[in-house]
Structures are given as structure tokens and as C-alpha cells.
Design brief:
Length: 544
Amino acid sequence: MTSYSMPILAATARAQANTVYTVSSGDLRPTANVICWPAQQKLESDLTAAVTSLGWQVQRGHEIDEVKGHGFIDSQRAGIEIFKKLPVDAALIVVEAVWQYSHHVLAGLRSHRGPILIVANWEGKFPGLVGLLNLTGSLTKAGKKYSALWSKDFTDDWAIEGLKTWLETGELTHDQGHVRDLPALPAGPEVDLGKALATQLSTEKAIIGVFDEGCMGMYNAIFDDELINPLGIYKERLSQSALVAEMTKISDEEAHAVRTWLDDAGMTFHTGTDEATELTDTQLRSQFKMYIAALRIADDFGLDAVGIQYQQGLKDTVPASDLAEGLLNNVERPPVSSRDGSRELYAGAPLPHFNEVDEGVAVDSLVTTRLWTALGHDPATTLHDIRWGEQYGDNFVWVFEISGSVPASHNGGYDKSYSKRQPPMYFPLGGGTLSGVSKPGEIVWSRVFIMDGALHVDLGRGSVVELPAEETERRLQATTPQWPIMHAVLHGVGRDQLMARHRANHVNVVYTPDAETADKGLLAKAAMFTELGIHVHLCGDVNV
């Protein structure tokens, strides 16, 4: 009789009474983890004090690695091993003061049976709020139940009461009264246009070019083919190594022509000579070659939009992609010819770039670009991180900020745009941004996301406001001063309502000429999304 050896299962740890266990998901980039670690320590200390004041104790679920210089979970394997040792039914808090890679903890959270709370500190220097929104969006896509909470230091009554509720019940809900399902749409030209363009997209089809999926652990940004193919959207899966290879074929003369065009347009480049800390002409030359290469590859494959992952791999090979991305998103940009010189590529139109390969942004950008072009508006659109915000006067003014993919028209033109070196912490080989302060005006904001196995979209209205120069500078210094910034006031949506509802770290924005055209544009978007079969939700004060 044959005998078989059986695997030995590790004994499951038992949760201690009145104890919460904590974990912290971090970056995959070691430098970022080390630099951000003090901010994480402060948040964990503040949270521990709050939990202790409510009669509970805190047990950190993993050790601080003195050799690495931080206590973050910094890989998927590390996360899996750590969760093996945690009580599977314990009350668990994921504590996030920084940007984090959601896949580091996704495997453990999927199988965890106890209540889960995601917390972040309300401050802008390190993007903990962005990390929280990415993780909650990822858990929403995964169909995993969770709660979320945010506070400057977890001493305010609102946060303490929320924490108390979760500790006692295992659940915490927030006001989402600003969200309503789309009502029956009225007959009219905007609705007809949206439906017509939806039919055109679903029958003629579009291709999005994906230069490697899953940027920075953003599980929520990967949209399965089965969900987007029925819309008429298909993926061309491309390798970032092909982008680098194409860059080697671009001459210095072609790259110089891009620089000359931007100089003539009035764009400012803050350059120096130290490759480690300053933006250099060599870095810019590489970025201009990437811009040309992206357009030529897009032309090769007939792409309607493109997404470059950057970060892992590409960040160690070439300077940042952000300047190229911002140029692609703008209608007016340096001309690029086909390889044989016979055609200008994508002349008079943007090639929408979905930053960080966020495929929800890809769907939104395709819809927005086609609609805004048909409506006669500037179709330049971009995503932003929902980074942070504070009250200013009578309004809560959000800091929407992204690493540099903003089109120049959002800043008021190239003469109001500038480029600074990306932070070495995230971008070791440097490269410039396409930065500026977003111009005042009316916007439509949106987010396409996955929930309950289906595509949904939140739609809302907002205004970009102008703040005094000193306040803008204060907000830049409180976040990432090299990056483009938008001062956004959302109509009828409170701070905590947006945080409770939003299912992603990114939000899409597009300008309209005035409030009336914004309402009409939003109506057209709602009609197009609905016709495509996407569940539409209106957020805040929306005239539909």
C-alpha cells in the first residue's frame, strides 16, 4: 500500500480579546519606503493612541525590518507570508500614510474573515489618501467587504466616533446621500449625440494600447476584456521594451525639433547639470524621443488611446514618461511625422494617454474625447490623483495632482506651463513634468470603476478656482511641488462623501466653456455611458 506525505498546515493564530491587528502596505521602491517611514510611524502612533483610548489594544502584524529601514509590507510574497501568521478572524486595520501597492496585501485581505478597516492620515506630503482610495477601489472590484476612515491625527470627534463604531460592530458606513442613479433621460440633441457615438464605438470598435498592465499594484485599474469588449474597446498588449527599442531609432535632430517647438510655444524648462538631482537636457532629449516613439507605435497598431506604465522596469531604463504623456493629451503639440515623413501623426487631435495604464481612465478618455470633439469643445482630458484638500474661505478646495501628464491647455497654454525634474525618490533617472496651475473654469469629473462584476461610472460637476499665489505655493509645498496642480471645488459633494464613495485613486477631469455647456456635456456623457451598458450614477448637484 502506497503512503503519501501530507502537507503540514501551520496552526492558525488565535485572536486576543479586545485586540486589533495592524498591517501596513508599502511601496515596491525601497527608497520610497525608507523616506516615507517616519510619516507611517507617526500615523501608527496616532492610531494606537486612539484605539487604546477606547479600551482596545493594538498588535502590529509584522516586524520592522531594521536592515531595510522600514516596517512596510514591500512585496506580494511578503504579504502572503505575513497573513499566514495573522488570526484569520481578527479585527484588522490596514494603516496607510503613503502610496501603497495594493497587491502586496490583496491576497491576505481576500481570505481574511474578520472585519477590515482601511485608515489614512489627512495630509498631503505623502499620498496616504491616494493609497487608501486605491486599496478600497481594489477591494470593491474584488467584492471584499471593508470599512474606511481618515483623520489628520485621529484625535477629532468624528474619527474617534467612527473608530469606536467599527471596533464595536465591525462596520462603519458614511453618508453617500450625494449619489443617485441616473433617471430617465430627456429627449434632446445631447442625448441623441451620446447614443449615436455609443453605437459608433460599439460597431466600429477602438483599440487601447497597453504598455504593460498593473502599474504600481493598481488591481482596480485592470479592466478585464470581457467587461470592455462589449463596449467596442479592445486591448493591444504592448511591451515597454518595445517602446525603449523604438526610442533608439529616433534621431537627436527629431528630438531637438520637439524641444524647439516647445521653446517657441513659451514653455519653461528648469534645467541644470546634475543628473541625480536636476532636470538636464539629456533627460529631456530622451523624453522627446519617447513622445515620438509612442506616436509611431500607436500609428503602427492603429491605436485610439495609449497607456504607459512607467515605474517598475521603465524607471530604471529611461527618464520619466510624464512629459510625453502630457504632450500626447493636448490638441496642439509638436508635430511628429510617420517614419517615411509622408504624414503627420494624429494631426490636430490628442492621442489620449491613460496615465499609469489605468484602464478605467482609458474607457473614460475615449468617451470624453469623442464627445467633446463632436460638441466643439477642447477634448483634452486627464486624470488626477485625489491627493488632499482643505477649506479655503467658503469652499472646500481639493488638491487634484498628478505626476505630469496634464495637457498644456488645462494650464492655459504652453506659455503657462513648465517642466521640473521628477523627485528622485520615485524617478531615479529623472525626466521632466508637464506642470502648471490649472486655469479657472468649469469641469465635468468622472470615474469608471468595477463593482459587483460590472462597469459603473460616477459623474459630477465642479469648478476650478484660482487661489492666491501664496496659497497655491503652500499647497504645492504640502504635496509634491514639481507636479501640476488643480484647485477643484466639487458641486454638492462633501469631503467625506467623496472619500467614502470614490472607487479609485484617480479622477478624470475635462473643461467646458461655461456652466451651461458643462451640464449639456455631462448629459451627453451619461447618455453615451448608458447606451454602452455602463451603470451611471450622478454625484452632487447635477442638472440632469
